[in-house]
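Work Package 4 report. The design task specified in the project plan requires that, given a folded chain encoded as structure tokens, an amino acid be chosen for each position. We show below one input record used in the internal validation round.
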């Protein structure tokens, strides 16, 4: 079986590489010539644990190929996956120009039956547009070639994407023909043989499933952040509350950790897109609107705590920041809470020294020379007025607190991920502020 993956971003590269890992011949296509040449040399454009080794291994075994020529991959191709970007528009809607262009290119160049699968996160109804785009191109050519369309949304967590793909909770596939179903069963057989379920449904339901899943997880995060803020006001401890409700099997303990809000490429974009889809049908998703509002305000919570501590005078203060990416195990800076905190600090006249184990280069692309980039976590602390923790990288969880105390002008930490114990930090002599806990008690 041979498949083509169009788009070598996060979803496309992980998808193509993991399919090749189970023995399927894969060609990853991208219009970016530099990216394709780099991939052939083993230079990976994203950070994802384990991906680089897997790309090298399958490329060397001639199961994974890279190309800029989509047409040449279609001759003996069974399935084409569209994994191109769907960036948000100003109104929150998903921009489908890249998805539709892929469909048109397939229609211009296909000569045999194939299954066109949308892997990108797309609004409900996109499959109809994809199908129409392919058919329009076939009509222009005056040819009658059968094809099917399907939806196969991804559920990959950045930082654990390979494990998610190879050992999925579920595989969701939306389709409209028996022929397409048989192809997808064959494609995913290596996974279903290991007990991972494949759920077939109509395409519209499949498209909605992706948005509903991400929106539910975003809702849990914003709900817990709202609860954390209330806990801090009334004198409760969100860490105890989280354990108390997380032990309820109906709720579970995932995505209920308080923090500085969700970011990344999925949740912010998908929540906005689903809200916009509802508005297009004259319906207000009031819960999700509130989720988004809470998340936007939560990204400022560490800054607000610093403003309060310094009596609204941050001018000239040097702030050390640990963690820039939106979460650990990724270099993704998209919608990262750190960007909001840093922007507000700079506007207030503060200086920022930052360190992240992986995301420094990506941060420089966004922030340029507005901040100082430190060589390691302790270098960031030298002559800093306080430490702000935004991303809970493992190496930050058990630092040498004596060194921290000596390097900072005063032992002061603002912890946006609650990775330290309040009583222990007080015992060590730190002024410690976290999320959802009244540390003055």
């Amino acid at each position: 079986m041979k498949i083509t993956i169009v788009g070598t971003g996060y979803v496309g590269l992980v998808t193509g590489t993991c399919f090749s890992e189970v023995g399927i011949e894969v060609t990853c296509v991208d219009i970016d010539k530099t990216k394709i040449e780099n991939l052939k040399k083993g230079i990976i454009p994203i950070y994802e644990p384990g991906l680089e080794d897997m790309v090298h291994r399958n490329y060397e075994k001639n199961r994974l190929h890279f190309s800029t020529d989509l047409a040449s991959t279609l001759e003996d191709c069974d399935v084409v996956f569209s994994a191109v970007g769907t960036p948000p528009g100003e109104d929150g809607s998903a921009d489908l120009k890249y998805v539709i262009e892929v469909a048109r290119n397939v229609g211009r160049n296909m000569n045999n039956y194939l299954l066109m699968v949308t892997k990108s996160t797309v609004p409900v109804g996109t499959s109809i547009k994809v199908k129409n785009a392919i058919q329009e191109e076939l009509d222009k050519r005056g040819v009658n070639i059968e094809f099917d369309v399907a939806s196969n949304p991804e559920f990959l967590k950045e930082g654990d994407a390979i494990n998610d793909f190879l050992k999925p909770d579920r595989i969701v596939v939306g389709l409209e023909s028996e022929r397409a179903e048989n192809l997808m069963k064959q494609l995913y057989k290596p996974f279903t043989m290991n007990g991972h379920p494949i759920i077939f449904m109509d395409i519209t339901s499949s498209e909605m499933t992706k948005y509903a899943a991400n929106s539910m997880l975003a809702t849990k995060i914003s709900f817990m952040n709202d609860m954390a803020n209330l806990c801090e006001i009334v004198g409760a401890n969100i860490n105890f509350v989280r354990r108390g409700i997380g032990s309820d099997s109906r709720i579970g303990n995932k995505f209920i950790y308080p923090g500085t809000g969700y970011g990344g490429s999925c949740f912010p974009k998908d929540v906005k897109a689903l809200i916009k889809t509802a508005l297009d049908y004259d319906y207000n998703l009031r819960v999700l609107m509130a989720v988004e509002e809470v998340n936007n305000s939560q990204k400022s919570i560490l800054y607000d705590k610093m403003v309060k501590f310094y009596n609204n005078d941050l001018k000239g203060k040097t702030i050390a920041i640990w963690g820039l990416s939106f979460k650990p195990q990724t270099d993704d800076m998209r919608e990262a809470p750190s960007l909001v905190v840093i922007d507000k600090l700079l506007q207030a006249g503060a200086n920022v020294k930052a360190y992240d184990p992986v995301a420094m280069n990506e941060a420089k692309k966004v922030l340029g020379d507005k901040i100082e980039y430190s060589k390691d976590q302790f270098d960031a602390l030298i002559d800093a007025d306080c430490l702000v923790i935004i991303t809970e990288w493992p190496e930050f969880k058990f630092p040498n607190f004596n060194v921290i105390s000596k390097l900072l002008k005063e032992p002061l930490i603002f912890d946006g991920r609650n990775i330290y114990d309040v009583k222990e930090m007080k015992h060590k002599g730190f002024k410690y502020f976290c999320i959802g806990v009244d540390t003055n008690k």
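The CA atoms of residues 91 and 276 lie 7 Å apart. Validation will be extended to a larger panel in the next phase.
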